[in-house]
Amino acid sequence: MRVLITAGPTREYLDDVRYLSNASSGRMGYAIAEAALAAGHEVVLVTGPVAISPPVGCEVHPIETTDDLLNTCVELFSKCDGVIAVAAVCDYRPVERVAGKITKTGTAVTFEFIETADVLAELGKQKADRWIVGFALESQDPRANAMRKLKMKNCDCIVLNDTSAIAADSNDVEVLSPDAETVAQFRGTKPKVASDLFGWIETHIAGE
């Protein structure tokens, strides 16, 4: 099986120096990539900028912006059996990126932001006979928001966690089905959760 995995954050630049991003460490996505490799599968890892090294043996595609992530995943998805989308996508970008570096003037600076591309929703449109596992990191009305994402992005299931997972060594995840049922729950270190979760995906999603 050839599995596409996304990991880490994306960045959206305000000027050539400063950017909007998030605190994702990439550990969860990298741990899932490691688990898939250990299970004997091919892994295509699309990764935002992180401070850790990718697992040995996977095909690595570094990206930076959300558009980079979108274009790379669209190109690769057709050659994969499924995707596990763990990347923490930056949801907004400035309407205009300023060339060079913005200079301090002693006055307030205002930026107008718009939403970035919905990468997983685009892959959902191209799903065909492939499978899709999404991740949802939520802090408010988590189950409802996770289910909305599952349906909008045409996922086979969605993995729900909360903001305590950001840059942490451990995680506590709940797997939701399209019927809004909790079909699995895993907690522990990120490598343990990744191994348990990938084993479940093998049996219940990829193996169907």
Characterization of this structure:
- The protein is α/β, with parallel strands linked by helices and 208 residues long.
- It has one domain (2-97, 108-206): Rossmann fold.
- Helix content is 28%, strand content 27%.
- It has 5 helices and 12 strands.
- It has helices at 27-38, 66-77, 119-125, 142-152, 190-206, and strands at 2-7, 12-13, 19-20, 42-47, 59-62, 82-85, 92-94, 113-115, 131-137, 157-161, 170-176, 182-189.
- Strands 5-4-1-6-9-10-11-12 form an 8-stranded mixed sheet, with helices on both faces. The protein has a two-stranded antiparallel sheet with strand order 2-3.
- A hairpin with a 5-residue loop joins β11 (170-176) and β12 (182-189).
- It starts with a strand and ends with a helix.
Question: What secondary-structure arrangement, pairings included, does this model have?
Answer:
Elements: E1 2-7, E2 12-13, E3 19-20, H1 27-38, E4 42-47, E5 59-62, H2 66-77, E6 82-85, E7 92-94, E8 113-115, H3 119-125, E9 131-137, H4 142-152, E10 157-161, E11 170-176, E12 182-189, H5 190-206
Parallel strand pairs: 1-4, 1-6, 4-5, 6-9, 9-10
Antiparallel strand pairs: 2-3, 7-8, 10-11, 11-12
Helix pairs in contact: 1-5, 2-3
